[in-house]
Amino acid sequence: MKTNEFIKKVKELGYEIKRSGYNIEIMFNDFIVAGVYTDQMHVMTFYSHEKLLLRNADKLFHLLVEYAKTPVEDREEEKKFYL
Fold this sequence. Notes:
The protein is of the alpha+beta class. It has helices at about 5-10, 55-70; strands at about 15-20, 25-30, 30-35, 45. Strand 2 and strand 3 form a beta hairpin.
């Protein structure tokens, strides 16, 4: 899964995105609910708390897993150069 596609799908679920270097944090009501690295495979965090009442938590979790399983070299769009 491409990074841009991942971010778009997460936002469609109603979450906010905060990028910091190679880290993508997923926010809900000003709380970090998940995170994933863009430069590492199989690394993610997911925090679930009853009081936050996360929307679409199962869909978010599956998106995180799919993105984390994507090889790093397949996450970015191909760069095109024009002369």
